[in-house]
């Protein structure tokens, strides 16, 4: 059986990413720069033989996948589905606020003076999730159990389906905090300090019912795409 791998991409840079606003279940489109980098990423990934493609149901993830598939020779025929379980965290009433506002509130909920102190104390994903849940006045945010179950089940089901069909590589588009959280669920020492660039690729191998991490937040595929683009223009 062929090895089962997930190439997990963080969506392209959006308007809210650029404005440094909280973007979980709310959505904004990719910026011009965001589109360009995903086009380069698509070129950098075009030689990889994917067996299927999956994105979250957020518009920014769907837009990212559309661009990636448009650059891939198998894009028009590659099976593609949308899975809401791999969408970003829901930040409830904090959605749309400036990042600085949310990361000013969350440390205080956890009895820290500021964000830096919270991070220095090795605060866990579970503690941050619970703080978001408690700070959410709209009652939209998920509990830690709800969040961890949907994220892990979502990615495991993708990997299990690929494995069941003989293995291979799946192209997956998800979100920064969700990918970092998945890595923590897979291996606990992967912590909240992780900062994944838009368009970066995290590669996981699925074997014997478990994930192993092979690559985290790589931008090498974008750089490869930039070089391919230069050669095409020369």
Automatic annotation (TrEMBL):
The keyword Hydrolase applies. InterPro entries: His_Pase_superF_clade-1, His_PPase_superfam, Phosphoglycerate_Mutase. Keywords: Hydrolase. The keyword Lipid biosynthesis does not apply. This is Histidine phosphatase family protein. It comes from Candidatus Enterococcus lowellii.
């Amino acid at each position: 059986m062929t090895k089962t791998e997930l190439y997990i991409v963080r969506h392209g840079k959006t308007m809210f990413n650029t404005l440094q606003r909280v973007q979980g279940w709310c959505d904004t489109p990719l910026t011009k720069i965001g589109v360009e980098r995903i086009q380069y990423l698509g070129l950098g990934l075009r030689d990889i033989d994917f067996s299927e493609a999956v994105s979250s149901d957020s518009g920014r993830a769907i837009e990212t996948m559309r661009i990636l598939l448009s650059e891939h020779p198998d894009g028009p025929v590659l099976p593609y589905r949308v899975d809401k379980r791999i969408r970003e965290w829901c930040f409830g009433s904090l959605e749309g606020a400036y990042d600085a506002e949310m990361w000013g509130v969350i440390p205080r909920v956890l009895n820290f003076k500021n964000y830096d102190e919270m991070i220095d104390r090795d605060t866990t994903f579970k503690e941050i999730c619970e703080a978001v849940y408690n700070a959410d006045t709209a009652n939209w945010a998920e509990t830690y159990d709800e969040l961890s179950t949907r994220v892990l089940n979502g990615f495991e089901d993708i990997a299990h389906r690929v494995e069941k069909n003989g293995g291979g590589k799946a192209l997956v588009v998800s979100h920064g905090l969700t990918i970092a959280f998945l890595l923590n669920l897979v291996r606990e020492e992967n912590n909240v300090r992780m900062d994944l660039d838009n368009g970066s690729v995290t590669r996981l191998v699925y074997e014997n019912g478990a994930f192993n991490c092979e690559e985290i937040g790589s931008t090498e595929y974008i750089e490869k795409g930039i070089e391919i683009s230069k050669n095409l223009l020369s």
